[in-house]
Design brief:
The complex is a heterodimer of chains A (109) and B (116). Chain A is mainly β. Chain A is built from no helices and 11 strands. Chain B starts with a strand and ends with a strand. Classes of the chains: A mainly beta (109), B mainly beta (116).
């Protein structure tokens, strides 16, 4: 398995601003996954990030709103851009098909 | 497309008793993984137990065990000797076998309350 460090753990942001979430893994992994969990809901995949190529986005998610970087095999960032209250969610990164980071609780006011 | 269904939005159990959480899924694949995750208020997704579909033996992890019925596409979680710390949201999830690059598909979750 792998150990994932995700930062920040929580944040309160003003609408219209952007937040970048970081995910650091203690071993090299091919793919990193970003999920969103809206309040009271289950997890939904936002995108899959492969090192050296553009991320692949799920239906309903676009790169302009959720740009992702994957500069190496142990690190990725997800940015939530031009935030609105509807973006208030828990965001989680995942690797190896089943291991999750500790999550970022985002509140947009 | 694969789907995962958890029909029990909430369950409750007395401390030290046993509770079973239900999960059904739909897939045309013959080999795949099934998972149960625990999500406490801390929001972290904690892997409770994993089952490979090609294994006939039900997975067990201490007080947690599954009843995997492949033909019925059913994957229930049994928690024995329930403890107050077991109170959390529990999510059932599916992933294709051998694809570490493939996504997890989650059910809607079951909130488990444990009463002293």
């Amino acid at each position: 398995s792998a150990v994932i460090s995700q930062k920040p753990s929580r944040d309160i942001c003003q609408r219209g601003t952007s937040l970048t979430i970081q995910c650091q893994v203690d071993s090299q992994v091919t793919m990193m996954f970003w999920y969103r969990q809206q309040p009271g809901q289950s997890l939904t995949l936002i995108a899959t990030a492969n090192q050296g190529s553009e991320a692949t986005y799920e239906s309903g998610f676009v790169i302009d709103k959720f740009p992702i970087s994957r500069p190496n095999l142990t690190f990725s960032t997800l940015t939530v851009s031009n935030m609105s209250p509807e973006d208030s969610s828990i965001y989680l990164c995942s690797v190896l098909g089943y291991t999750f980071g500790s999550g970022t609780r985002l509140t947009v006011v | 497309a694969q789907t995962v269904t958890q029909s029990q939005p909430e369950m409750s159990v007395q401390e030290a008793e046993t509770v079973t959480l239900s999960c059904t899924y739909d897939t045309s694949e013959s080999d795949y993984y099934l998972f149960w995750y625990k999500q406490p208020p801390s929001r972290q997704m904690i892997l409770v137990i994993r089952q490979e579909a090609y294994k006939q033996q039900n997975a067990t992890e201490n007080r947690f065990s599954v009843n995997f019925q492949k033909a019925a596409k059913s994957f229930s979680l049994k928690i024995s000797d329930s403890q107050l710390g077991d109170a959390a949201m529990y999510f059932c999830a599916y992933r294709r076998l051998g694809f570490n690059t493939d996504k997890l598909i989650f059910g809607t979750g079951t909130r488990l309350q444990v009463f002293p």
